[in-house]
Amino acid sequence: MPISGAKIPTAIPTYPHPTVGKWRFFEINNLCKNRAFKSRQSNGIAKLKLKRSINHPTFVASASNVSISDTSFPTDYPDLLRQAKEATESAMQDNIQLMEIEFPTSGLDSVPGDGEGGIEMTGSMQLIREFCDRLIAPEKATRTRIFFPEANEVTFARTSVFEGVALKLDYLTKPSFFEDFGFGTKVKMADRVQPEDELFLVAYPYFNVNEMLVVEELYKEAVANTSRKLIVFNGELDRIRSGYYPSFFYPKLAALTKTLFPKMETVYYIHNFKGRNGGTLFRCYPGPWQVLRRAGKKYICVHQRETMPSLKEVALDILRPV
C-alpha cells in the first residue's frame, strides 16, 4: 500500500538517441519512409537543420577518492567526434576487433525520444560521415564498408550525406511486405563482403529486432579469426542489455548478451539520465567508466570503475542521493 505524500527522487534511466557540425542542411526523402523516417514528412520532403551544441558544461572532479582520467566530457559534437576517433584508434592498436560507439544525437545532454525517430537516425548518418572523415585515411576508403539497416537508406545516403564518397555503402536487410510487423528479408552476409574489405561500420541497427542478429552473423562470418574490425555505431544496445526485449519472445536477441556482447569493447559512450538526480554515464577508451553529475556549468565525477555499470545501478544507486 503506497504511503500518502511519500516522494522518492531518483534518476530516470533512458535509452540513447541522435545534432551535429555547424548548421548543415540536407533533405529526408521518401526512400526512407518505410522506417522511422515516416515521422512528419511534409509534401514528401522535410528540411533538417543540424545544429552544433553550445554552452556545454566543463568537467571537474570533486570526490577526493575518485581518480579522474585525462578525457573530459566533450564540449560539442566536433569535440565528441575527435574523442571517439582517438578512442577507436587506441582500441584498434590494442587489436580489438568488435567495438561499440554510442551517444545521443539530439544534443549532448539529450535522451532517447527528445528528437523524432527519423531525424535522430538521419542525425546519426551525418555524424557517421563526419566520424569516417576523421578516422579513415583516403587510401583506406575503398576498403571500408558501411552497413545501413536497409537498402532504401543506402540509396538515400548516396544521394545526400555520402554523395561522392569512395566508401562502400551496403545494407543488412531488404524491406518486405511484412516490414511493419518487424520482419525483413535476410541478406546473407558472406555474399556482401569482399576480400579487400578491412573495416565494417554498422549504422544504428536497432529499428528492427533482426538487425543485430545480422550483425552477429557479419561478425562470425567476416570478422572473427581475421584482421578485420567491426564498429557498431549508435545501435542502442542498452535495450538488449537491460532486457527491454523479453527473452521468452526474443531468445536469439537475448542470447547476444552471452555470445556477441562479451567480445565487444565499448570504446565511446554517453548516456544521460533525466530527473531531479540526473547525470551521465561516460566512457572514452582506454579510460574508465565514469558517472558524472552536473553542477551548474560543470560536471563532477561521483563514481568511477573499470567495468560498465548497468543503467539501473547508475540511476537507482550511484545517482540516488544519500
UniProtKB/TrEMBL annotation:
Q: Which InterPro entries match?
A: DUF1995 (IPR018962), LPA3 (IPR044687)
Q: Please tell me the species this chain comes from.
A: Spinacia oleracea
**Name of this chain's protein:** Protein LPA3
According to the entry, every stretch annotated as the DUF1995 domain falls at 74-315
